[in-house]
Specification:
By secondary structure, the protein is an alpha+beta fold. It has 13 helices and 22 strands. It has helices at about 5, 20-35, 50-65, 85-100, 115-125, 130-135, 150-160, 180-195, 195-220, 240-250, 255-265, 360-365, 370-375; strands spanning about 15, 35-45, 70-75, 105-110, 140, 145, 225, 230-235, 270-275, 280-285, 285-290, 300, 305-310, 315-320, 325-330, 335-340, 345-350, 355-360, 375-380, 385-390, 395, 405-415. The chain has a six-stranded mixed β-sheet with strand order 3-2-1-4-6-5, with helices on both faces. Helix 10 crosses helix 11 (about 255-265). The two termini are about 45 Å apart.
Length: about 425
């Protein structure tokens, strides 16, 4: 097995999740043989009486034989609970603690290609989209699955070739759980009909994984972020496709398909949807998204020209021009200036106008989205008058004319 398939940096310290079964013992042997720094972690759930103790002994004997650290956790699982979910939480909490306490870089689990296929089918029966059908990723944070491309036959052959000791979990032969039913009953029926069907299923899963990756990348390119606000322009797409496209764009922020349909079909103005971390609204054909909790912006006092870092970007007021900067007559700018978020009552005289307008109304008339308006910064002069809506418009009060002798350049570069 080459290191590219293992997908672990050779300098990493690896905690191997070992049940004592064939797959995990093969994994431990593969990583050890490849020269990785390895430790073993085993959870004894006490669910199978003497068999549970014998599983633990296999792991301990392998660790002792190879002078490896071996971490054992004895757990008491209530059979009245969802045993599989409870056991999963126990072991991953254990792995996380071991990584922190013993400085392991990654956790390696022994999922292989058949596990991947089973997961795809399991998710299909539960109801899922393309991301559920692509199966188990090889890496997820610090969790790595080095055997994810190995077949059952390759694992069996490796085990036999190296004489690896392992134990079979008798509960795997029971079809009580859906995953076991898929493995023990459904897939044998499929291969009995045509032995090539299994290979075709593997191929389908790989294509779905590639499609899911491509969809993720396309969705990223549709998202345009300016400061704390992300915008998604859906105008190029047919109405029937918009909810699905939006879902692919904002699913990682915790939104679901139903919310995307609700947002795009809303008749009332100001409709918002919320996840645990974000909120989203629609403005014409553009969806805006930002954090659920509004970002606070510190009020800044600007005594002279210079550069300031704010929560929303870098503000520059200088005598040197920069790309996209607004121009102001230095003699008309009354320092000290103040920088803050636009407030409901703010008004100003837009460049080229003779009348004052409300800042919020001005931005709305310019088709600026709701969340972008929330995060609009304004600069006020020493008299408290708005002289610049940052990144949008300067006041006519400070405009450059033929008599201007000294120019200031104003710009806000979003984070």
């Amino acid at each position: 097995m080459n290191e590219k398939k293992i997908a672990i940096n050779k300098s990493s310290s690896v905690l191997v999740a070992c049940s004592g079964g064939r797959d995990s013992m093969v994994l431990a042997h593969v990583l050890l043989s490849a020269g990785y720094t390895v430790g073993l972690a085993h959870v004894n759930y006490k669910l199978r009486d003497e068999d549970s103790e014998l599983d633990q002994k296999v792991v301990e004997d392998f660790a002792k034989k190879n002078s490896l650290s071996c971490h054992i956790h004895a757990a008491n699982v209530d059979r009245a609970d969802n045993v599989q979910l409870t056991a999963r939480k126990i072991r991953y909490d254990f792995f996380k603690r071991l990584c922190t306490e013993n400085e392991y870089d990654v956790v390696a689990t022994a999922h292989h290609s058949l596990d991947n296929l089973e997961t795809m089918l399991l998710n299909l029966f539960r109801g899922t989209g393309i991301y559920g059908l692509k199966g188990i990723p090889q890496t997820n944070g610090n969790i790595v699955r080095p055997l994810i491309h190995w077949t059952r036959d390759e694992i069996n052959a490796y085990c036999d070739e190296h004489g690896i000791t392992y134990r079979d979990d008798a509960s795997n032969s029971s079809s009580r759980y859906t995953r076991n039913w898929i493995r023990n009953e459904l897939l044998p029926l499929v291969t009995a009909k045509d032995s090539a069907h299994l290979k075709k299923l593997f191929t389908s899963r790989e294509m779905l994984e590639a499609d899911g990756t491509a969809m993720t990348e396309m969705a990223k390119n549709l998202k345009k972020t300016k400061g704390p606000v992300t915008s998604i322009d859906l105008s190029p797409f047919a109405d029937v496709a918009k909810p699905t496209i939006l879902y692919h764009c904002i699913r990682n922020e915790g939104f679901n398909r139903t919310q995307c349909v609700d947002l795009l079909s809303a008749k009332e103005p100001g409709k918002e949807i919320f996840s645990s971390t974000h909120r989203a609204c629609i403005h014409s054909s553009t969806v805006e998204m930002t954090l659920a909790q509004r970002t606070s912006v510190e009020h800044l006092l600007l005594d002279s020209s210079g550069e300031w870092e704010t929560e929303l970007g870098t503000l520059t007021i200088a005598k040197l021009n920069s790309e996209g900067a607004e121009q102001a007559d230095r003699d008309k700018v009354q320092f000290p200036l103040s920088l803050a978020l636009a407030e409901r009552g703010n008004d100003f005289t837009p460049l080229g106008s003779t009348y004052r307008v409300n800042v919020a109304k001005y931005l709305k008339d310019k088709k600026i989205g709701r969340y972008s308006r929330e995060y609009s910064l304004v600069v006020k002069d020493a008299q408290g008058e708005v002289i610049w809506i940052c990144g949008a418009q300067i006041s006519d009060k400070i405009k450059v004319t033929e008599t201007t002798s000294d120019i200031l350049y104003l710009s806000l570069r979003p984070n």
